[in-house]
Amino acid sequence: MNISSTSPTPTTTDFKGFKVYPIAGVANPAQPHGRRDFYKIVLISGEMTLNYGGQKIDLSGSNLILLNPRVPHAVEHRTERKGFACVFTETFLAGRERTELLQHSPLFRFDGSPVLSLSPEQTEFMSGLFQKMRSVYTSDYDYKEDLLKTCLELILREALRIQPPLPTLTSKNGATRLTQLFLDLLERQFPIESPVSPLRFRTPQDFAEALSVHVNYLNRSVKESTGKPTSVHLADRITAEAKALLQHTDWSVADIAYSLGFEYPTYFHNYFKRITGFTPNLLRTRKV
What we know:
Layout: E1 18-25, E2 31-32, E3 39-45, E4 48-52, E5 55-59, E6 62-67, E7 73-77, E8 81-88, H1 96-103, E9 115-117, H2 120-137, H3 144-162, H4 171-187, H5 204-210, H6 215-226, H7 230-248, H8 253-259, H9 265-276, H10 280-286
Antiparallel strand pairs: 1-8, 2-7, 3-6, 3-8, 4-5, 4-7, 6-9
Helix pairs in contact: 2-3, 4-6, 5-6, 7-10, 8-9
InterPro entries: Homeodomain-like_sf, HTH-like, HTH_AraC
Pfam family, one: HTH_18
Domain HTH araC/xylS-type: 176-286
């Protein structure tokens, strides 16, 4: 079973965007990560290889793995593994300090390793927190949400305390890696399957926030690595998807506009004409 794709994830019937569960079993082939809207923290022992945002990391012993849903990842287990995992939404940690702890933690940045190697003492401490969360999660305690958030915050703060210094990336390597993550995140939004599920990330600022970097740094990196501004990549991909939807679906122009993140059809009409030189309806009727 893959710790990042086939394990349980929160649903509308779960406890408000949070789940904690034990991990055990034999090794299986690597699989890509699944749902993209849940953060995941895994306490696990065993031999495995983690592919995370272009990094290939061989692991053994006890490790704490902190997975950002916006960074592509997959794991391949080579031996039996044992431990715990929890998945949670960003809204579960509602509150200014906890949200900042999550969003600005270098443990969840694209340029930091998601893995912490644990000593026996650290493993025991983390295991105790996961066991406490598991016990509270399955109980009828009236204030269990507060206690679960407290335990999760302790895990994050302890992880921050014991993490090694982040390696300093060269400007070229950092820009290349950030650009690849940007392009991966952009491409994973397509193709659009339903007009009721609009794009989550449409602007450079959206992508910068998702990758926990300043928008100016993202723009510089993308331009340096590809020769094209971030805005041009976005315009090209959104326009290509718009053409495909206009030519190969029976969705209304309004539905297509909404699916691509435009608040009003007129905004989409003007955008499409400015980029392509013709209107959405002209493309659809004349097969331009």
